[in-house]
Amino acid sequence: MDLIIKNTEMLTIDIIEDQEKDKEKLIGYLNRYSKEQNTVFNIRHYPTGSAFLFQYKSDADIVFRDIERPGINGFETACQLRKRDTKVLLIFLTNLSQYAIKGYSVDAFDYISKPVSYESFETRRIRAIKKAHRDRERDVRINSLGQFYKVDIRSITFIEVINHKLIYHTDEQSYTCWGTLSSIKEDFLKRGFAPGSVSSLINLRRVYSLAGNKVTLNDGKKTEIYLSRSQKNEFAKAFTDYVSGD
């Protein structure tokens, strides 16, 4: 199992569309926006829902999916997608507006009626891109035996290393992967974590109390972590700075 901190600069956008004309229109709109806003997208196209699901690794930020397609339709694709990735922004493309209501069952972010105009596409895209950038700042991707998961960094309570394995403790479960704390430390220090010892990083958002060298976490179990002598003062300063907003 490997941990991957996502690049925050380039958004990955997947398009599931079997109609060549519609595919080229969507890609053209994205390229037009890219030039106008001086930004870059990683755009990937899949002709069918089956092809998309076979290759998907929970690494997209936005997915555009035509609902009314042969084979695995848009909702079936979305249901399978949600089993792997609950966070990706899903936007349906449809000729029928009543499908928008059904889209809520798979937590669709939005829908766009066909034929798609640049104006309607741009409005939805801007909303989606802004949210995707915000979400990406919070996302950590974990690869567990070839299966990728997105984890909200706020749900991670602490990280520890045991026998050369990193363990990411979250509200729902713990993820284990091979690695060293030093390989991830710099990234997590920038994202609201502080060392509890040479073998642990603690999420400052999840600290319930700090008394002496004992940290109590707000994780539903009031987990207690004891700080090492060498890290005690550094952690106290980091926590004070975090609380004060410095």
Task: Report on this structure.
By secondary structure, the protein is α/β, with parallel strands linked by helices. It has helices at 20-37, 49-55, 74-84, 99-103, 118-138, 181-189, 232-244; strands spanning 2-5, 11-16, 41-46, 62-66, 89-94, 110-113, 139-144, 147-152, 156-162, 165-170, 174-178, 193-197, 200-203, 207-211, 214-217, 224-226. 34% of the residues lie in helices and 33% in strands. The model is unreliable at 1-8 (pLDDT under 50). The chain is elongated, with a radius of gyration of 21 Å. Helix 3 (74-84) links the parallel strand 4 and strand 5 (89-94). The strands form 4 sheets. A 5-stranded parallel β-sheet has the order 3-2-4-5-6. A 5-stranded antiparallel β-sheet has the order 11-10-9-13-12. The protein starts with a strand and ends with a helix.
Any descriptors?
disordered N terminus; five-stranded antiparallel sheet; alpha/beta; 16 strands; 7 helices; five-stranded parallel sheet; elongated; 246 residues
Please state the average pLDDT score.
Answer: 82
Q: What are the secondary-structure elements, in order, as H or E? A: EEHEHEHEHEHEEEEEHEEEEEH
Strand order of the largest sheet: 3-2-4-5-6
What is the number of helices? 7
Q: What's the number of extended β-strand segments?
A: 16
Q: What fraction of the residues are assigned to beta strands by DSSP?
A: 25-35%
